[in-house]
Amino acid sequence: MINTTNVAIAIFSSLLHFWWVFAIMIIFGLLKRYLNSAKVKGVLGETGAYLGMLANLDSKKYKIFNNIKIVDQRGKTQIDHVVISKYGIFVIEVKNYQGWIFGNEKEKYWTQNIYGKKTRFYNPLWQNFRHIKALSEYLGLESKYFYNIVFLSGKPHLKLNYHPM
Predict the structure, then answer these.
(1) What residues pair up with 111 in beta bridges, in sequence order?
(2) Beta strands of the chain (E only): which ranges?
(3) Which pLDDT belongs to residue 162?
(4) What are the helix and strand counts (H, E) for the chain?
(5) pLDDT of residue 140
(6) Where does the pLDDT of residue 32 fall: very low under 50, low under 70, confident under 90, or very high at 90 and above?
(7) C-alpha atoms less than 13 angstroms from C-alpha of 70 in its C-beta half-sphere
(8) What CATH code is assigned to 37-159?
(9) β-sheet bridge partners, residue 113
(10) What DSSP state is assigned to residue 45?
(11) Distances in Å between the alpha carbon of 138 and those of 51, 65, 69, 72, 141?
(12) Are 138 and 72 contacting, i.e. CB atoms less than 8 angstroms apart?
């Protein structure tokens, strides 16, 4: 007859020798979860937009402001980038998306589809329009001087007037 207690102790004792494997698996799992978080993806997208696009602008012609926060009667808003030049004020919202993106400028929500998993999100053009409204009121300027730019980083495939629903 096999003593199950002794077998269990032997298995547990063997597993204890590999505790570091379990620790590494847990650390990698947590790290992957952190790196896939929306906040980290947003920071990576905004940094990529700045380094890839805005950092190359002539500093004598363009003034760049990053991560602007405004509080108004509608609440708080955060603007990724603002570029001021003689051509206008460019308000830039950066989104780090992958997969297929469905929507258009008239819809309140867009849909992201990654391998069949669909996620709705607020229309970034509308979101940036809110930023422009807050900034124009804060600066006391008409909205005609502002340009709404949404920069999509990552590898999105835009399907802006097509909905497979």
Answers:
(1) 102, 120
(2) 63-72, 75-85, 88-102, 109-114, 117-122, 146-159
(3) 56
(4) 4, 6
(5) 95
(6) low
(7) 22
(8) 3.40.1350
(9) 100, 118
(10) H
(11) 27, 15, 11, 8, 8
(12) yes
Q: What is the CA radius of gyration of the chain?
A: 24
Whose structure tokens read 């929500």?
A: 109
Cβ proximity of 97 and 49 under 8 Å = no
Task: Give the helix/strand (H/E) hosting 135.
Answer: helix 124-139
Cα–Cα nearest to 70, from 131, 159, 140: 131
Tokens of residue 1, six digits: 């007859």
Domain boundaries, the chain: 4-33, 37-159
The yes-or-no verdict on residue 17 having pLDDT over 90 is no
As given in the structure block, the two tokens for residue 154 are 């990552």
What residue has token string 């920071």?
43
Task: Answer yes or no: pTM beyond 0.85.
Answer: no
Give the number of residues written for the chain.
Answer: 165
For the record, the structure tokens of 80 come out as 């990724």
Q: Which of 91-105, 131-145, 147-161 reaches the highest mean pLDDT?
A: 131-145
Q: Mark residue 154 as left, alpha or beta (left: phi above 0; alpha: psi -120 to 50; beta: remaining).
A: left
| Nearest in space to 128 (alpha carbons), one of 61, 59, 80 | 80
3-class DSSP assignment, residue 140 = coil
- Dump pLDDT digits (tens) for 132-146: 999 999 999 999 999
